[in-house]
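Chain X:
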Amino acid sequence: MRCTIVRRERFTATHRYWLEECSPEENLVRFGPTTRVHGHDYTLFVTMAGAVDGYGMVLNLSDVKHHIRRLVTKPLDYQLLNEVWPEFQRTLPTTEWMAIAMFNRLAPHLPVSQVRLYEHDALWAEYSGEAMNAYLTISTHFAAAHRLALDTLSLDENTEIYGLCARVNGHGHNYGLEVTVTGEVDPRTGMLVDLVALQQAIDTHVIQPFDHTFLNKDLPYFAQVVPTAENIALYIAQLLKEPIQVLGAHLHKIKLIESPNNAAEVIVP
């Protein structure tokens, strides 16, 4: 029987987005303030899979730690990424391209099944060895109120189904929203999608119309659809699928976090 293990490592590094073949004005239009050298405290998760041996381990964790630090985190720690690895000289060190480069450097030494790299807690990338195809996730939030009830049922009947969530004056949540997109990483820019444009699409189609609303009354869609976490996630997926496609990426997943105890995910085919 196979088992999966995960090792976490951290490092700090700086980078900038700058294409030598473009003028300063063109770079500024394309990359904005990220043309300046800036830094991040990166968190790296390396997932490995294999059979459990007679010692009860997939791999010796001391060996795993040694390989990751020797091959990845030690060479990159407190460095200007653009100048460290050849991979980052021909392709900009975006989060998604860094995940691919790390996977490829580790794969000959460890049975890596996935690399997940956090630039910060609201942006991370995943790579699982699928050629140039990677995943990028933006985490954001909005506040909204809702009431869970069907108009065709009495208050007692709705309470039996939805509990306290059926109370007539509704209640609110600070919703967490994770939007994961997938696509091929551009071999020069290191991007699978324009990050600024992606954030704008999410803000325009979801955050602005949803934030600080009573979903049942302020969004026509939920006048007829009960705004459960599942239905909200499905609706957000409907709203974002086409705008993200226009940007040249594919919407892969919506995760809506209603509370620390409840969340709903929608995988988009």
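Chain Y:
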Amino acid sequence: MSKEHQLIAIETNSINGEAVQTVNARDLHEFLKVGKDFSNWIKDRIKQYGFVENIDYVVFANSGENPNGGRPVKEYAISIDMAKELSMVERNEKGKEARQYFIQCEKQAKAAVALPQLNDPTWLRGMLLNYTEQVEELKQTVDSLENLFQVGMTPVKFCKQLNGVNIMGVNLFLAERNFLYDAQQEENKPYEWRVKAYARDKYFTEKTVTVNTEKGKKQFYEVILLKEGAKWLYRHYLKNELPMKKGWNGEFTHDKYIQAA
């Protein structure tokens, strides 16, 4: 889409190591004619809808001068998906217009394939080889997950099957990556893990568990792993990014026949 036909400028930024089409949140705020000031609006929306930094958006300082003095202005480069959701929740005509615009931009980006390369045999062979390798890698991962993942298991139970993982650090690892949070938030008390809105029903879910204590029955939440969450954990395991035991032998293995209790 040519610049003169852009309702809102779209740029390419790096989010979590990937080149992603993004929108400056301040430009979107201005287009949507939001009554609230930008800083409070974007912070409230991020908190309300569970957007995650370095997954849905990145923050950077404006290189220009702050007209009000003080620190440089904080800017947000947000993904197209986040921009569509922010537009939709405004529930007005400007929001509808912006959302349709972003959908159209996505369609044009997908259609912008380098067609001349389709006539290049070398390029086609390379693409076919790369595709074949990806399919084989995906098949191996799926085979492994089918043997490991079971409905209703917790992240800790899943990771017990992965050689070398320090299961005591699994939930803390997930909390550091904004999947879980501690509902207790008090020192010297056990963690009460809950699933953040962003990850709920996509990577994890929750179930209530009732136990008998000296003071009577107590209800708490248990984090339950979903298939997408299992894939995410397994990929990070193969990248050596999960918390590992000090005595780990360096081998990424698992027992395919272990059944979760």
